Amino acid sequence: QVQLVESGGGLVQPGGSLRLSCAGTGSIDDLYRMGWYRQAPGKQRELIALMPRGGTAYYAGAAKDRFTLSRDNAVNTIYLQMSNLTPEDTAVYYCYSGARYSQRDYWGQGTQVTVSS
Questions:
Q1: Is 68 exposed, middle or buried (0-12, 13-18, 19+ CB in 10 A)?
Q2: Residues 6 or more apart from 37 whose CB is under 8 A from it?
Q3: How many angstroms separate the CA atoms of 15 and 80, rounded?
Q4: Sign (positive/negative) of CA torsion 60, 34, 71, 44?
Q5: For position 62, what pLDDT does the model report?
Q6: CA distance between the termini of the chain
Q7: What is the dihedral sign for C-alpha 60, 16, 71, 75?
Q8: Radius of gyration of the chain (CA)
């Protein structure tokens, strides 16, 4: 059974920073490609970044210059360091894992990030 548990969301002022964590449980195959998506109110879920096990991060969209994805395989945990946050970054942030061979997708429950003064 794959579980992805996010933490680190909350309220932050514009220009501030926040670090999200996602701890995964499951097989190496199930936790192969891990990363983050987000969904703002009234918008579609969008990719932030992905990193395969043993690979480098791929970034998408406007967050690529302000967000950094890292991964600690020893504890099956990924991190998203977010800086220079703006109100447009307000969203529910979801941890994602894609299996390498079974092609299954797994999602965390989401963590709310609110950027507001």
A1: middle
A2: 45, 46, 47, 48, 93, 94, 96
A3: 16
A4: positive
A5: 65
A6: 40
A7: negative
A8: 13
Q: How high is the mean pLDDT in each 10-residue block of the chain (117 residues)?
A: 96 98 96 97 96 95 87 96 96 97 94 97
- Which pLDDT value is given to residue 64? 80
Please calculate the CA angle 9-15-6 and round it to the nearest 5 degrees.
Answer: 15
Q: Of 85, 100, 65, which is closest to residue 14 (Cα–Cα)?
A: 85
Residue position matching structure tokens 């395969």: 52
Q: How many CB atoms lie within 10 A of CB 8?
A: 16
d(CA 16, CA 19): 11
How far is residue 115's CA from residue 97's CA, in Å, rounded to a whole number? 26
Q: Which letter does DSSP use for residue 100 in this model?
A: S
